[in-house]
């Protein structure tokens, strides 16, 4: 079983939900990221989504746009992000790591080399925001034969027919985007999310993570009642930005948010 | 000799031109693009829709635009006859309005009350604000802060037309960033909003439908050449940023093997300096703004900043159909730098009394080199895609004159 499968199976047995933090790799400096990943695991993270910085993050709001700008200014490229995962794996062989980003840096590296390196350094899944299932024929088999999951988004606008098609192409888990908008947008509507997640469950067998608009312990708890995983990004990246020149304070602030979410999600 | 492709069969059902094009967007937009494609495929063969489009082009835009023989300039250059396809005489001053008329009709059919657009030089923003005013639609135009500075007159024009001009401060603050911001707005307001993309880039079906709307340029030029010159032209020349005016001119001639085609990119300070906007001349294939095409990127696949005196060509990508036409060798892609474009701008103004847009001046600059290499009984058609009024302040600044 893959790390992602093992993690969701374990959580299911414990009747708990996955807490999935997102940070942008190399924000604000390359050496920050791996220690921050480790402290997030200590604070209760089950899966880590690591953002690959891109110059034109079209699906992201201002918080993650600025994170990309800081990471790029620090010189973070895709090879650096892969090296971070390699380093992370030296101390952690169980927590799944999912790379999340845009297609162009991957095209630039080459699909084969990217898939090969992902498998080698211990990346468990890849989510490419601007790669819908319709365009994945070339890259999907390269991941599949190496046991790296290709994770896809499902949106509020996705039709039932498309959900079926996405579920066929996807492995690992599905990422349900809770609202129409960019990352870090206004609050989500839990009732709407619950209804959509029910629909997705009927059409797909994979665990469902929900992201976009989850800001605090309360919204994390509400979403954890209906989904298998809760993704939190902008709320953490805000703390990274605020404490950019004080790594200790940054780690403390990020851990505090995650610990609060963890407790709220685990509370019966 | 390899067999000529069936150009009319492209893009394929999924929006690909060979390995280029496609639909690379986040999931939230997929349904909206499907809806747009379905509506467009239905309407494009609907005689009533075509009649509405043709009527607007005739009576609102002022088509057909003339094909003008530039006799004095031809004489000076001493080679092929030079014909100018006068898109500068269109309402709002450029070819952009052909497309915004078409997309506004689509928006109306789809019941969308709010339109958004990105703009570089401001011509597409003005053309979008114009059709929005005419149809009573709410209009928001995203424009890079740097372009707002360069194109103050067009910004004010858009405001007079009732549009809201939103300054974009992210990234390089030019056209590509305006497009990112427009995509972000669209993903947020997808239910009631129609995104009027200004060029033959973006996700499928945009490159196809923008091309179809702009192809009126080439259809007219073909008929006019036969009527006025008695034959098809030997060469076509058009500037290429995203490439909508060029594809509009080229597309109806693609099957005419005897017609050579030149797409002229912006070489900025010179292609060899790296400070340019010429992805077909010096870029690599990649994915940006919803399609696979040639891009200007660094070794890590990050999009790099472009440089051109002309805001409308300052874009790191290019329409996917151009990328394909380059690879199969049907169109020659070349480049003209800032200095050459400015010289052509001044020359046409002084010799023919026609002030071209700085974008179009890139096409003129290349034609100026091409014409003397051709015979006097040969013909070149240049797409004069826009008028230069909007660029007077830029040129004055270069001359050290401040108003």
From TrEMBL, chain A:
User: Mind giving the lineage of the organism this protein is from?
Assistant: Bacteria, Pseudomonadati, Pseudomonadota, Gammaproteobacteria, Oceanospirillales
Source species:
Alloalcanivorax profundimaris
Q: Which SUPFAM superfamilies match?
A: Ribulose-phoshate binding barrel (SSF51366)
Gene name tied to this protein: trpA
Q: Does the keyword Lyase apply?
A: yes
Its annotated pathway reads: Amino-acid biosynthesis; L-tryptophan biosynthesis; L-tryptophan from chorismate: step 5/5
Recite the UniProt keywords alphabetically: Amino-acid biosynthesis, Aromatic amino acid biosynthesis, Lyase, Tryptophan biosynthesis
Could you say which residues form the signal peptide?
none
- PANTHER family under this entry? TRYPTOPHAN SYNTHASE ALPHA CHAIN, CHLOROPLASTIC, TRYPTOPHAN SYNTHASE, ALPHA CHAIN
Q: Which CDD domains match?
A: Tryptophan_synthase_alpha
| Subunit details | Tetramer of two alpha and two beta chains.
> What name goes with this protein?
Tryptophan synthase alpha chain
Quote the HAMAP family the UniProt record gives: Trp_synth_alpha
Citing just one GO molecular function, the answer is: tryptophan synthase activity
**Family the UniProt entry places it in:** Belongs to the TrpA family.
The record's EC number reads: 4.2.1.20
This chain's function reads: The alpha subunit is responsible for the aldol cleavage of indoleglycerol phosphate to indole and glyceraldehyde 3-phosphate.
Keyword S-adenosyl-L-methionine on entry: no
């Amino acid at each position: 079983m893959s790390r992602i499968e093992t993690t969701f199976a374990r959580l299911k047995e414990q009747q708990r939900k996955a807490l999935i933090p997102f940070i942008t790799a190399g924000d604000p400096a390359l050496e920050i990221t791996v220690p921050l990943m480790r402290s997030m695991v200590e604070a209760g993270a089950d899966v880590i989504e690591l953002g690959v910085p891109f110059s034109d993050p079209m699906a992201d709001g201002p918080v993650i746009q600025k994170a990309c700008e800081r990471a790029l200014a620090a010189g973070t490229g895709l090879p650096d992000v892969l090296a971070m995962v390699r380093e992370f794996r030296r101390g952690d062989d169980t927590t799944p790591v999912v790379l999340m980003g845009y297609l162009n840096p991957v095209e630039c590296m080459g699909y084969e080399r990217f898939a090969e390196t992902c498998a080698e350094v211990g990346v468990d899944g890849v989510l490419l925001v601007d790669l819908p299932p319709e365009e994945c024929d070339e890259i999907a088999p390269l991941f599949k034969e190496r046991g790296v999951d290709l994770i896809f988004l499902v949106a509020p606008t996705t039709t039932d027919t498309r959900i079926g098609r996405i579920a066929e192409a996807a492995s690992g888990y599905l990422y349900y985007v809770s609202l129409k908008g960019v990352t870090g947008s206004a609050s989500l509507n839990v009732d709407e999310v619950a209804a959509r997640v029910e629909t997705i469950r009927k059409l797909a067998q994979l665990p469902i993570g929900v992201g976009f608009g989850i800001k605090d312990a309360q919204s994390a708890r509400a979403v954890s009642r209906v989904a298998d995983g809760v993704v939190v990004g902008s709320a953490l990246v805000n703390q990274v930005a605020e404490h950019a020149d004080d790594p200790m304070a940054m780690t403390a602030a990020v851990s505090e948010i995650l610990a609060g979410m963890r407790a709220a999600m685990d509370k019966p | 000799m390899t067999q000529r492709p069936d150009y009319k069969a492209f893009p394929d059902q999924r929006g690909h031109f060979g390995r280029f094009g496609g639909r690379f967007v986040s999931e939230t937009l997929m349904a909206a693009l499907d809806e747009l494609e379905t509506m467009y495929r239905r309407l494009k063969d609907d005689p009533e829709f075509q009649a509405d489009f043709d009527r607007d082009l005739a009576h609102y835009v002022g088509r057909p635009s003339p094909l003008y023989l530039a006799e004095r300039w031809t004489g000076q250059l001493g080679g092929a006859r030079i014909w100018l396809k006068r898109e500068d005489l269109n309402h709002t001053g450029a070819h952009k309005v052909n497309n915004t008329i078409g997309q506004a009709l689509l928006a109306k059919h789809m019941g969308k009350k709010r339109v958004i657009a990105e703009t570089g030089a401001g011509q597409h923003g003005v053309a979008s604000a114009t059709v929005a005013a005419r149809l009573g639609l709410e209009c928001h135009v995203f424009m890079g802060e740097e372009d707002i500075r360069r194109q103050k007159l067009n910004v004010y024009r858009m405001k007079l037309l009732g549009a809201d001009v939103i300054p974009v401060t992210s990234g390089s603050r030019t056209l590509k960033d305006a497009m990112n911001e427009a995509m972000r707005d669209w993903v947020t307001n997808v239910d009631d909003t129609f995104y009027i993309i200004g060029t033959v880039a973006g996700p499928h079906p945009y490159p196809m439908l923008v091309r179809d709307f702009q192809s009126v340029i080439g259809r007219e030029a073909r008929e006019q050449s036969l009527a006025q010159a008695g034959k098809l032209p030997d060469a076509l020349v058009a500037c290429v940023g995203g490439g909508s005016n060029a594809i509009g001119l080229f597309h109806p001639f693609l099957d005419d093997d005897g017609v050579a085609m030149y797409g002229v990119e912006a070489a900025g300070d010179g292609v060899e300096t790296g400070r340019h906007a010429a992805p077909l001349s010096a870029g690599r294939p990649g994915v940006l703004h919803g399609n696979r095409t040639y891009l200007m990127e660094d070794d890590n696949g990050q999009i790099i900043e472009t440089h051109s005196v002309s805001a409308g060509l300052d874009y790191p990508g290019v329409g996917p159909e151009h990328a394909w036409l380059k690879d199969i060798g049907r169109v020659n892609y070349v480049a003209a730098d800032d200095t050459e474009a400015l010289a052509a701008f001044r020359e046409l103004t002084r010799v023919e009394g026609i002030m071209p847009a700085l974008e179009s001046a890139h096409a003129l600059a290349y034609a100026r080199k091409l014409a003397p290499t051709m015979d006097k009984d040969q013909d070149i058609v240049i797409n004069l895609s826009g008028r230069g009024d909007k660029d007077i302040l830029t040129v004055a600044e270069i001359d050290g004159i401040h108003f």
